[in-house]
Prior knowledge:
Pfam families: HTH_34. The protein has helices at residues 2-5, 15-26, 32-39, 43-55, 78-106; strands at 30-31, 59-66, 69-76. By secondary structure, the chain is an alpha+beta fold.
Amino acid sequence: xxxxxxxxxxxxxxxxxxxxxxxxxxxxxxxxxxxxxxxxxxxxxxxxxxxxxxxxxxxxxxxxxxxxxxxxxxxxxxxxxxxxxxxxxxxxxxxxxxxxxxxxxxx
Length: 107
């Protein structure tokens, strides 16, 4: 169990960061407004969580202009994808281990 717990990533403890990475794992790139609407969060809340993921180098931020307005979009990095996959795999192992333990108790 100790070996599995080493792959639980504290960065993904927060539901918003977990959700951001979940969205970015299945989409090549997602813009700020789309993420904000999907996650139902404020501008500031989303900005602080994307900044935390960017500081870990789990996502990259791209700013461009659409007409005269800035458009900020996010993309998961290879490092971020690896870290997220390891985190999810560890959670699944814990769940599967717990299910197996419960089944053993009932026998």
